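Hi R.,

Here are the chain sequences for the assembly we discussed:
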Amino acid sequence: MTDYQLVTGDETVIRDGSIKLHTEAGFAGMRRAGALAAEILDAVAEWVAPGATTASVDDKVRAMMLDAGAVPATLGYRGYEHSCCISINHVVCHGIPSEKTFKDGDIVNVDVTPLMDGWHGDSSRMYLVGDVSLKARRLVEVTYECLMLGIEQARPGNRLGDIGAAIQAHAEQYRYGVVREFCGHGLGRLFHDAPEVVHAAKAGTGPVLKPGMFMTIEPMINLGKPWVKLLNDGWTAVTRDKSLSAQFEHSIGITEDGVEIFTLSPTGRDKPPYA
Ligand code: MF3
Ligand code: CO
Ligand code: CO
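And here is the predicted structure of the full complex:
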């Protein structure tokens, strides 16, 4: 049985396993948080350049959030000490900003979550550094298609499993591996809430999607096998077979007749090339 809980205003929201159903106040809050996430990801395109350190991007992301009156939701989250995650090549997710520099040919995910007026805008995009191989560019393109095909299934009356089924079918058509260990998630006042949005699933299974549900869809797709391992730093997830991995993430809300994407680029730069 799925438990749904109405969130109408400023009440305290806890992680009790229920799926939250939000009202117009929530949509308004998510629009602002999502718009900031998208503006930041637009700017990141200029910062991910050969020779730049990943820490320099993290610093600029933090500054842009603070300037806008938001805070990085990742800063201090379960001991994480950075303002975004930067995952290069075979890093699947949760790459930690450091003195490491971007190199020609890298594919890079930057994942940001501004917390603005109590609402979380969670989004990530891929960036291409210089000359990127055709097979890497194809992985990035197909991963973006996976995200958008998942979002297409997000409408009232459909089930959560319809999203993962669409993503998995598309990725596996190219013999790519869909990562199972990390999922999309409910969000809103909370960063990570129910439900878990798995990216490989059976159509017609799982909770029914209802207007007012907020969630992320954030497929991680590997050029090789789906298997991942965690590095000793406790955060960095990499592909076991060292194959390339790509990811895109949007925060969305289910509306009366479809879906609203809170984290769309204001300039149409949702995927590379960004020029
Ligand atoms: N933004 C990530 C997500 O999509 C979560 C990062 S948590 C961190 O859910 F602590 F690693 F930053
Ligand atoms: Co997320
Ligand atoms: Co994210």
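Helices lie at 24-47, 54-67, 134-152, 160-173. Residues 122, 185, 216, 218, 249 surround cobalt (II) ion (ligand 2) (CB under 6 Å).

Let me know if anything looks off.

Best,
T.
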